[in-house]
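Structure (tokenized):
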């Protein structure tokens, strides 16, 4: 689904969720249509800005399945930063260093479990910035296509046991630890 409320070309949007969102609710950051996972929503524009400002360095963690077995060299390049194209700009951008860990499919959290047999690699990538389609572009930049992308953490907030489409209201403690 699109991480927005405004209808667009018949695609599923946040309006499809069975939850009564307050007027003025907006997503904090976005997930592209092919991605899944944790999405924060708020009516507080200051909260929105604080979470997204790069200088606040709020980590975002993703589980990423790439096609084929990824090389150690590619993982190292992801860690140190990759040059990517920025949307709408005639410039490239060097991504900041990030954490990258590969893991076995059997270690995938149960809620995301798969039984794939074709060659692939699972990675956990944690970044502190958030450029448009950044993870996909980073992986492409080192020669690997992203097949599945799941955001599992934003700061101290994790997806935990949330099911697709499920909504959890953040507690005051969640908000304090996030910021």
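Design, position by position:
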């Amino acid at each position: 689904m699109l991480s927005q409320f405004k209808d667009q070309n018949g695609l599923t949007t946040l309006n499809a969720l069975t939850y009564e969102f307050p007027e003025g609710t907006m997503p904090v950051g976005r997930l592209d249509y092919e991605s899944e996972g944790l999405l924060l929503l708020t009516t507080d524009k200051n909260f929105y800005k604080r979470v997204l400002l790069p200088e606040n360095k709020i980590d975002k963690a993703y589980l990423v399945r790439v096609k084929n077995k990824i090389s150690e060299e590619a993982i190292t390049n992801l860690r140190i930063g990759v040059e990517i194209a920025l949307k709408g700009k005639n410039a490239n951008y060097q991504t900041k260093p990030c954490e990258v860990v590969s893991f076995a499919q059997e270690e995938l959290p149960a809620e995301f479990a798969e039984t794939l047999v074709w060659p692939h690699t699972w990675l956990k990538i944690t970044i502190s910035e958030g450029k448009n389609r950044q993870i996909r572009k980073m992986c492409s930049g080192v020669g690997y296509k992203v097949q599945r992308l799941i955001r599992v953490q934003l700061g101290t907030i994790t997806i935990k046991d949330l099911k697709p489409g499920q909504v959890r209201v953040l507690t005051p403690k969640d908000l304090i630890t996030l910021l």
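Reviewer-requested clarification: The mean pLDDT is 91. Residues 7 and 19 are 17 Å apart (CA to CA).
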